[in-house]
């Protein structure tokens, strides 16, 4: 016997971040063009690295904007969760591109440590300031929505890394201008690469965890199992699974073995209400699907069930 609550999964309750993403995309695209021009004029790898990072941000923010649009499309019979997972796919794609850029910057920076080219520090400063101002405006736009989902976190993270990259460019330019040490440009590039990679790996791991339907962080399934077993008439729990459809949308399923008498005396309805209320209040999972079974039903379960 299966029992569960049916919920709507349209986009009505989703915060709309499309305007923020579109505005930051426009700013980032403008800064990208400015920094590419500045990199060619000055010969700075740090400025070019930051422009390369901006290029990935343009691609990433475009993906994020597309994902935000898709996530608001309603559920259908073919896609019962709608496109809610689009934000996770967008975050994973952004992280993959960022990782590739970070590795390229590190490799090129190491090469330039041994063969530092001539760099025009004054031009670096001008274009570095332009990049930093653009990044700060972007951060201000995204700040309020950065915790909404993985997609917005990815976008905010990219702009934070850009801002730090612009600071590194300015520091390198000042060092070159005051000391003439050309390797400061390569060192700044190394700093940008080091800033990109660790944060990108964390974001990629979180996105992959969702795609692999791993148990959500902070949800201890053994505690869930123990809590269910404490309810009256419950004899055992198996096929207990939990995953994230998207940020803020955890789901849980379980097969619960109950006393045979529950199937005849009307206990199942109140038990279902109590069980799902317990899961929602104690573990913050509002979407759960419970299948009640008798002890004898275990003999008919498929061998892959556990």
Written description of the protein model:
By secondary structure, the chain is α+β, with helices and mostly antiparallel strands. The chain has two domains: 18-211, Cation efflux protein transmembrane domain (Alpha-lytic protease prodomain-like), CATH 1.20.1510.10; 215-300, Alpha-Beta Plaits, CATH 3.30.70.1350. It is 61% helix and 11% strand. It contains eight helices and four strands. The protein has helices spanning 18-42, 45-71, 86-114, 121-142, 150-179, 184-211, 221-229, 268-283, and strands at residues 2-4, 234-246, 249-258, 287-293. Strands 1-4-3-2 form a four-stranded mixed sheet. Helix 1 runs antiparallel to helix 4, helix 3 packs parallel to helix 5 and helix 5 packs antiparallel against helix 6 (184-211). The two termini are 18 Å apart.
């Amino acid at each position: 016997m299966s029992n569960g609550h049916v919920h709507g999964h349209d986009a009505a309750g989703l915060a709309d971040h499309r305007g923020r993403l579109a505005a930051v995309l426009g700013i980032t695209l403008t800064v990208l063009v400015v920094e590419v021009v500045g990199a060619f004029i000055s010969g700075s790898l740090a400025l070019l690295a930051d422009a390369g990072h901006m290029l990935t941000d343009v691609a990433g923010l475009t993906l994020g904007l597309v994902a935000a649009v898709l996530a608001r499309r309603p559920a259908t019979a073919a896609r019962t969760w709608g496109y809610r997972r689009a934000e996770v796919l967008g975050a994973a794609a952004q992280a993959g591109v960022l990782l590739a850029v970070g590795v390229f910057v590190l490799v090129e920076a190491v090469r330039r440590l041994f063969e530092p080219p001539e760099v025009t520090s004054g031009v670096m400063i001008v274009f570095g300031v332009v990049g930093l101002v653009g990044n700060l405006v972007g951060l201000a736009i995204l700040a309020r929505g950065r915790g909404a989902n993985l997609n917005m976190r990815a976008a905010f993270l990219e702009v934070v890394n850009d801002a730090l990259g612009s600071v590194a460019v300015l520091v390198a330019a000042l060092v070159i201008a005051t000391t003439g040490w050309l390797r400061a440009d390569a060192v700044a590039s190394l700093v940008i690469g080091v800033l990109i990679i660790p944060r990108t790996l964390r974001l990629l791991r979180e996105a992959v965890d969702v795609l692999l339907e791993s148990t959500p962080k902070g949800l201890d399934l053994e505690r869930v199992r123990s809590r269910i077993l404490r309810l009256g008439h419950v004899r055992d729990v198996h096929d207990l699974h939990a995953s994230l459809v998207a940020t803020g949308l955890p789901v849980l399923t379980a097969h619960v073995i109950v006393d045979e008498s529950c199937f005849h005396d009307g206990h199942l309805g109140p038990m279902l209400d109590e069980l799902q209320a317990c899961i929602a209040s104690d573990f913050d999972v509002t979407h759960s699907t419970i299948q009640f079974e008798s002890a004898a039903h275990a003999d008919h379960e498929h061998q892959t069930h556990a």
